[in-house]
Amino acid sequence: MARVLVTRPEPGASATAKRLRALGHEAIVLPLSEIRPLDPDLPEPAAIDAVAATSANALRHLNPERAGSLLEKPCFTVGGRTGDAAQRAGFSDVRSSDADAAALARLVAAELPQQSRVLYLCGRVRRPEFEAGLDTAGIRCLPVEIYDTTFTQPDAALQSLAAAPPDIVLVYSVKTAEVLRDMMSPPEPASALANARFFCLSEAVARALGTLVEGRTYWNKEPDEQALFALLSEA
């Protein structure tokens, strides 16, 4: 069994660690980011044709009282975990893409007419692919930032792992990958990660780690945690 470093924010980090331990792995919880809910105002349901989310965090922190009858709209999501979060948030019509944000934009464009209005529940820190894809397809995207993400660089904590370094690092986002890349860069690279393998949520996440870990990055085509655990089972 492996020593696995979990870098995702809470509460997901502890849930992942529990799952790892149940499989016999040693889980090391070291979140590199923190999620802060924003609780913004939401548009009137009559002004919206559908809802979309590319992160489960957006749905986890959605205020159900503010959402109201928006929950009756179709909700487009990326991956099973985000789809499950949409159902828990109260959406009954959930339509998921098993690929990435760009693929989700294509799914929305295939199912909605041009000029449809899509409420995008998102984070303040996000990538542009989904919004760009909708714009290209002639779909009106209305982003509403549900949460913010702050990132840390716990160098001291990583150095403390040098005596018993992780075998595998689970990496869930491009921004977290960039934080790890910076930690591993000169002049003071994190020695605890020198030989670790990096299991990434997607190819984009793996690319963000840079060339310092070339040959040590792995990903599956499905951008969800189940795919990460499938990689673990093959390790």
From TrEMBL:
GO terms for biological process: protoporphyrinogen IX biosynthetic process; uroporphyrinogen III biosynthetic process. Coiled coil: none annotated. InterPro entries: 4pyrrol_syn_uPrphyn_synt_sf, 4pyrrol_synth_uPrphyn_synth, UROS/Hem4. Keywords: Lyase, Porphyrin biosynthesis. It is an enzyme of class 4 (lyase). Signal peptide: none annotated. Pathway: Porphyrin-containing compound metabolism; protoporphyrin-IX biosynthesis; coproporphyrinogen-III from 5-aminolevulinate: step 3/4. The keyword Lyase applies. It catalyses: hydroxymethylbilane = uroporphyrinogen III + H2O. Its EC number is 4.2.1.75. Residues 15-229 form the Tetrapyrrole biosynthesis uroporphyrinogen III synthase domain. Pfam families: HEM4 (PF02602). One of its GO terms (molecular function) is uroporphyrinogen-III synthase activity. Belongs to the uroporphyrinogen-III synthase family. Catalyzes cyclization of the linear tetrapyrrole, hydroxymethylbilane, to the macrocyclic uroporphyrinogen III. This is Uroporphyrinogen-III synthase. The lineage of its organism: Bacteria, Pseudomonadati, Pseudomonadota, Alphaproteobacteria, Hyphomicrobiales.
